[in-house]
Structures are given as structure tokens and as C-alpha cells.
Amino acid sequence: MNKQLVITALGAFSLGFGGGYIVFFEPSPAPLVPAMQPAPSSDAQLVTHPPQLAALPESPQTAVKKQQPPPATDTPEVAPEQPQGAANSTSDIDTLRRELAAAKQTIATYKHILDAPSDMEAELKERFTNQERDEAWAYEVETKVSDFVYSQGLAYKIKLDTAQCKQTVCRLQFSAQEDVELDPRDDWHNIQNTLMEQPWWQQFHRTNSRSSEAGLNLWVERLPPSS
Questions:
Q1: Residues 200, 166: contact at Cβ < 8 Å?
Q2: 123-137 average pLDDT score
Q3: Is residue 47 very low, low, confident or very high in pLDDT (cuts 50, 70, 90)?
Q4: What was the pLDDT predicted at 137?
Q5: Is residue 124's pLDDT more than 80?
Q6: What segment(s) does the record annotate as region Disordered (predicted)?
Q7: What does the H/E/C string look like for the chain?
Q8: Is 201 exposed, middle or buried, given 0-12, 13-18 or 19+ CB atoms closer than 10 A?
């Protein structure tokens, strides 16, 4: 009986030693240890994870603000180039000025020609200078010309400046009253026509007239009286 106990004990010892050897030498996986992460503080949680709010629809003003371009940086200002249309306008103005200057020169030339005495005017002036005065005839004509201004109702706009007669030639000068403007082509022309329609005017066979804004100048001549 003792022998059986010894054998049993040896067997148990062998099994225990062998199992322990297997357990001891068998590789075992490394234990999984979860990584320890520091717990975030309450302040970090507030900053990092703000409370999620429901998205609100964007207002038109907010959308417009988003579409606005970024503010311009400070860059040196560059003078804008002159548009082509402005250059053309300047050229047109210069051309018009040159044309106006040329037109003024032309007008001055024609005015000088018109103001210059014609051959008839020069001839009548010379005769007037060389003639003696026929007192009776000269006074009669001068009086009729003076009466013409009042009889035709023209005294409010014209006045007789000169009425001088010699033997056959008379010099007559009319001018506008103060603050009265008369057109040389219309007003003075009509006055001259009215004057030439007078019965006593029919004795003159030659007439030289020149009208301007200043007035109306006439040189007239009758036929020499028969001897």
C-alpha cells in the first residue's frame, strides 16, 4: 500500500512538473494594456467641442457680404488712359476753331471790300466836292428828306444825321435811334425802298447806297438842270 502511494505521488509529481514546464516555456501574448490618455479638461472641452447648433438659413445680407470681394490692397494709383472718344473730341474742337478763324478772316475781307467806296460812290463824292451849292434846290430836297422821317412814322427808330445837297448831288445819312437795332438787309432795305417811292425822289437818276448796322448812307444825283 505504501508502494502504491509512492507511485501515485511520483506520477502526480511528473504530471505537475511537465505541465508546469509546458506552461512556463510556452510563449504567451503580451497583455493588451489600453493607452492611457489624459482626460481633457472642462475648459478644453468647451473650446474644442462647442455645442452644435442647428444651422440657420442665411439671410440675403449675409449672402451679399460673402460675395463681396476682399478689400483692395494699397497699390500706387495709375492715371487712367484718355479714352479714344475724348481725343477725337479734342481734335474736332481744334478743327472747328481753325475753321472759325478762317471764316472770320473771310468775313473781314468781304467787309473791307463792301466798306470800300465803289466807283460810282467815288465819282459822286468827287462831283459833290467840286460842285457849287444850288441853294433853292438843295434846301427843297433837304427839307423833303427831313419830313420823310416824320411823315412815314419812322422818327421813333431812325434819325437823319446828314442831308447835304449841292448842284446835282446829295449826300444822305440815316442812323438808328438809341437802343434800337435795325437789320441791314431787312429794316434799312425797306426804309430805302419807301424813300425811293416818294414822288420827289423820282428826279434822281443815279443812286448809290450802303447799309450796315450803323445806318444807311446814300449818294444820289439828278440830271443837270437845263439851261
A1: no
A2: 96
A3: very low
A4: 97
A5: yes
A6: 58-93
A7: CHHHHHHHHHHHHHHHHHHHHHHHHCCCCCCCCCCCCCCCCHHHHHHHCCCCCCCCCCCHHHHHHHHCCCCCCCCCCCCCCCCHHHHHHHHHHHHHHHHHHHHHHHHHHHHHHHHCCCHHHHHHHHHHHHCCCCHHHHHHHHHHHHHHHHHCCCCCCEEEEEEEECCCEEEEEEEECCCCCCCCCCHHHHHHHHHHCCHHHHHEEEEEEEECCCEEEEEEEECCCCC
A8: middle
Instruction: Identify the residue with better confidence: 3 or 21.
Output: 3
Task: Output the CA angle 31-37-38, nearest 5 degrees.
Answer: 140
Residues 6+ apart with CB under 8 A from 175: 158, 159, 161, 214, 215, 216
Cell numbers standing for residue 41: 479638461
Look up residue 81 and give its three cell numbers.
Answer: 488712359
